[in-house]
Amino acid sequence: MAWGEVLVERRIAARGVNPRDTEAALNWQLERVGSTAWQDWPLKFQRMAFGYAQDSGWNDTGDAVRWLDHHALLQEGAAPRGALVWYQAADRIRVACSLGSGRVVGPLLRGPVEVAPLSDLSTDWVWSKAHFPLGH
Q: What is the pTM of this model?
């Protein structure tokens, strides 16, 4: 980030492991299928699923995608189980978690937490490891 004439760069310590592992995070999400309590909070839902009780450090999913892109952490193609899938839908970026085989779970477009084929949600997506470098 440029601040006046001085270049300021915030270093982020590498996080090795999320507080909740992939299978536990997926189970947490699947236990909430049908819940409308997470409507419009897909980023918070994913952060909580992976065990972060506090802020993710990102303002919204667009901010997260820009940060991940800037750090070369986004990938294209089939998302592996447990990856965060960032997709464009209804004029905004959303996030869900891959179950593998093209299916995702999370608070989807209609609001409730559900499981759906990613191809039903969007034709434009990228994925990243479940990475919350600013989370705590």
A: 0.85
